Amino acid sequence: MSLETVEHALAEFYCNQNVEVHKILLDFQNSVDAWNLVWNMLDTSKPHEIQFFGATTLHIKITKQWSQLKRSDYVLLRDKILDTLIIYYNSTGPSNVINKLCYCLCAYVVRTVPNHWPDAIPQLMETFRNSLSQSSINVSVMILEILMALPDEFGATTLIQTRRNEVRRELQQSSLQVLSIVDSILQSDSLDPIVVHALKCAASWLDIGFDLIKCHQLTDTFISVILNPERSQACVLLAIDALKSLCTHPRTSVCEATVFEVLSKVIILSDKLFHLEITEEPNVVVDKLFDLFLGIGDQHFRPIVQGLLNDNTRELCTKFFNLYLTCTNAPGYYPVNENYSEKTFTFWFLLQDDLLSNDAGPDNTLLTIVKPLYISLTQVLLKKVAYPENLESWTPDERELFRCYRQDISDTFTYCYFILQSEMLDVLLTIYKQVTCDRETAIAQWQTVEACLYAFTAIAEPLQNHDSHPHIQQLMSSLGSLPYEQIDQKAAVAAMDTIGAYYYWMETNPSYLDLIVPLLMMGLHNSNMFSSASIALRDIAKECRQSIAPYNDVILNTAMIALKQVKKLKEELRLMYTIGVILSAMPFPKCKPSLDMFINPSLEVITSILAIEENAEFIKNRSVLQNRIRVLSSLVSAIDQKHTVYHIIETTTPLLHMAAMKYFISSPEDMLYAVVCEFLKIIVSKLHEDCSLALNVIIEILMIGFRKSPQPAGMILFKEIVIMFGRQETYIPLIKSTYEEICMRVKCMFEQVSPADQVSLGDVMESYLSLQGHIFRKWPFIAVDNPNVDFTFVFKLASEALCANEIFLAKTATFFLTAFISTSREKRSLFKVIEDNGQFLVMKIICIIINFHDLCIEGDVVKTNLDIMCEVLLMLNKKYSEHLRRWFHDIVTVQNIVLPNVTEDMKSKFFKRVLKEKSNKKALQGAVREFSFICRGLIQIDP
């Protein structure tokens, strides 16, 4: 390809971004000729766009296609890059081209040290000092830019582990020299642009690794930049980043004494944080400083915690803990005028987890020291979790962030409870009593009321493990006296949430139901409180089926009234579930009138809709029909009483059969069919042995829709039937015949669409393979030796699905294939399928490994598929080792499928490693992943 062709294509691409032109440019970048042509493109007389494309192409060649280059050309390439860089710097070329050339040089260093270019870094610095004609400012900037890019390029390059270790050692040996240069620049009166480059360079090299004992003097240098009022904010922020890199690198933990020496210097910066004020916008410097200290807390967590026990370090460590508490207590409301406090939540989790995992008992000294801190934290969190007065003026995004923030605080309340136990309950109850001592106080300070109730709700689950709950008795007793009509609805809702959170407590304290049930009934009549009240009622009804029985009538009567007022479907579904729980605890003859009272309205609506003859009119009511079936599903899902379930079957299945005959449509998007199948699936899960009539009707309804269009919902329902009744002799003929028809219908469906269009049938494919997998794992006799089922089709379909981008489809295909392969050795008909089509499966596996998507269903294969696919490879190797050896040979040698970027020796070693692993899945996954990355060019191997 000529240079003129490339430049013309590039000009056209910038004009209209034509796909074909883009392909020409990609072909050029992949060609061997590009190694030579890029230098013409990098001529300083060329347009900027061509220069940048040339630099980008050179970087791609070095990072992705290094194997194209001969070793004899390494030195020539290095000299050309150096000469070009010097020319660009001397001519003050475009910054983005210079930057890209810096990365090209660094990529070259990563590829060649130490074997081909020893002492690369000292040589580079000497070369640029001697070659640049510009002032010392530009010399410093250029050297710093190259040095800064080197660790970045190393981090971005995928190398095999041995090679990565070699390069890392070389960089670490040079790090002290580089950091010394940076230190000298920062201690001088250098201009801000040089300081900015020096700080960026320092942060990059500190990430590589260093000797803290030799480098900790840099702490003073960074701090002096941070505290220097004459430095720009950009310098200050970068100095904080560099200081964080120094203080938080894993290697800093080696020498604990030096760590504390460094931390004692850093703590001086905390003076900027202890006297914060509310500002309109969060302060970026403060934000960075909190990041610094929180990073220190994460990296040196154990030394700081243990330092509380040491007289020499206790004061320093206490300052750190108070700093974290100060951060949590940042003035203002998150996220409107502070964004610091949420950063500490991880630290509080780590602290309590560490204290409790180290057998901290009541006499534990550390626990005793830290408890006052957690008491203060509890009080701070109560303030931070409280709603602001002007919440409605916030944007939707701000309100959502605040909601998530409150959830994080809820988790942190739990951590406080793990440390404080009853002491936390004392704190919460004391504050709660203060603000609910009378109606006026509760109304005026509703935010604190709500915050206390929110905290009690947060710790309800861990509190469940304790036998005594005197605090909860006092809390529940006080809930009845809240002024629900006058207090803000958020506090009223919090009361309902608190009641629901302690559902388990009601079982051992049934006398409190006299207070609680009326409160919940009041909540059901209030649209704002309905959701929380219905959740609480559902949980209490499930937990306290016997003790709540005296209130069944009042609950059912209130529910009937509330159902007429409910506007949201999900709330109706929840209330119907609760009704199902209540009815399930009653004997059938007694509950039948109430049951009919709740299902008849839905049945009447369904009947009236089914009576509609005009199609357009029915379509308008289709969603109403679906919702009525969902409501019945919710009711049935809560019922576990045999006679009640059969009564519902008798009353609903005739209507569902009519709906199936009239209104199931031949479309995979038929939600009516999906809703009906979900209802029937719930019914099936409730059925007992004597259900032949019901099962016949259910399968008939299932197949009415399935014959029109095979849909996932039908196969999910049938899978439930197989799992429940596949072993019972009475139902085996019906199940077998249904299985045969499902298999034939699915095959027919896939035969009628082109391979390209099969992508749109991913849901059908996944549910079908899941059904097949469960049958072969649980009841293979249903499928085996069935002459009417084409298992070759099923096997090939699963082999194709293994390559899918959809991870769940690939997992389902693996689930089926491993079951099928495992069963096939004992069954001649299945063995024949593997024998004839195993090579097809292995071909797909190799395509996944090399990412050859032309032979896969769609696009690039997700890398996770590699690990999933290894389960199939392992099963093949267990059951068909000799076949696998032959298939590998035929595909790679006889069919000559090209495996890119690998030699014959590498292929041979890889196949031997695969054939060796018959049980160690992890070892097989490691071998396959490494080989795949080499084939894809993600790992470079020297030729």
Entry keywords:
943 residues; 73% helix
Number of strands: 0
Query: Mean pLDDT, as a whole number?
Result: 88
Helix fraction bin: over 70%
**What would you report as the Rg, rounded to the nearest angstrom?**
35 Å
The coarse overall form would be: globular
What is the percentage of strand-forming residues? Answer: under 5%
Low-confidence stretches: 853-862
- SS content category: mainly alpha
Q: How many helical stretches?
A: 46
**N→C terminal distance:** 25 Å
* Sheet with the most strands, sense and barrel status: none
What layout of secondary structure does this protein have?
Blueprint: H1 3-16, H2 19-30, H3 34-41, H4 48-64, H5 74-90, H6 95-112, H7 120-131, H8 136-156, H9 161-187, H10 192-208, H11 212-215, H12 218-227, H13 233-248, H14 256-266, H15 284-299, H16 301-306, H17 314-328, H18 345-357, H19 365-385, H20 396-420, H21 422-435, H22 439-444, H23 446-458, H24 460-463, H25 470-479, H26 489-501, H27 503-508, H28 513-524, H29 530-543, H30 552-565, H31 569-584, H32 588-610, H33 615-637, H34 642-663, H35 671-686, H36 692-708, H37 712-725, H38 732-751, H39 762-778, H40 791-801, H41 807-824, H42 828-850, H43 864-879, H44 881-894, H45 904-916, H46 921-935
Describe this protein's structure.
This protein has 943 residues and is mostly helical. It is 73% helix and 0% strand. Helix 17 packs parallel to helix 19 (365-385), helix 29 (530-543) packs parallel to helix 31 and helix 42 (828-850) runs antiparallel to helix 43 (864-879).
